[in-house]
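Protein entry
_____________
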Amino acid sequence: NAAVLAGPSNPEILFNYGVALEKQPNWSGAALQFERAAYLRPGQPQAACMLADALARGGDSERAKAALQRARELGPCNISSH
């Protein structure tokens, strides 16, 4: 959390924080961090892919489907919709 406060516009920090939140599992918190990282790096598929996964695991299937579609348009995304 301290790293996010120190670098709130650093997509790598936000992405890594999202990964840490997924391990807790804090799906809504992870989704927020992945969404921020994807916004800061819109051409990178990994954050969009992880966003789709966190949304699906958190029960937001509609947003997860849209995020998964966006991620797959950017590149490979090896998650399935939950």
